Amino acid sequence: MGYGDTVGSLRQGRVSSRVEEIVFGTLLGDGYLQPMKNGNVRLEVGHTSAQKEYVQWKYRELKEYVGAKPHLISFHDARYGKNYLQWRFKTKASAFFRPFYDYFYGREGRKKVPAHIAEDLKSPLALAVWFMDDGGRRNDSYGLFLNTLSFMRKEHEILRECLRKNFSLDSRIHWVQDGYRLYIPSKEAKRFCEIVHPYLIPSMYYKLPYNPVTTSFARLDRARDRGKPSITRRSS
User: Fold this and answer.
1) Does CATH number 3.40.50.10740 belong to domain 117-217?
2) How confident is the model at residue 198 (pLDDT cuts 50, 70, 90)?
């Protein structure tokens, strides 16, 4: 998997592509990069208390770059005026993350979708991490969604084309509450699940409407699916 001229420059043999792909998927999802004064960058990972196992999995995968173990904090979401419990860890500041910052943030300092991401997002593992971060399934159909609320409409168009080109997945752009999200319709659900299932950790299987191992679909709840807001930290 290549990450373009910028991210591709990381490939010097000592870093596995698996680590790169996990970081890539994390940054499409809830991951947050913080630049330091010395030019190095650190990655912050945080998920709700119910996703402790997922945070621990990321910690193990990125352990080479992490100092302190994940810890539980109280997180205040100013958008909704509520407090939440969250498992979080930060990596050590490292030059390893600098190309990722340049790729996703650039000079503006706002996390964005690069216009050429279709050249780089080709890994099922990266797609699976993105889904574990930000994805879920509807209750009233077999459709899935990616809560990409922090991205603008034109960025969703870029992501939609990327999914079509690299994974043969059709998607839609839906407006929900205070932002857009990508919707994978029911007719695409089986294919999407077959792509990401081998890379999901068991505690995340509940997000899938179809299990490729048992070849069974989840039971539907016909109550209207109103969607749930993301409560993890977003870059401004």
Assistant:
1) no
2) very high
Q: Which fold has domain 4-108?
A: Endonuclease I-creI (3.10.28)
What is the sign of the dihedral through the CA atoms of 105, 110, 115 and 118?
A: positive
pTM metric for this prediction? 0.87
Structural domain boundaries in the chain: 4-108, 117-217
Output the pLDDT for position 232.
Answer: 39
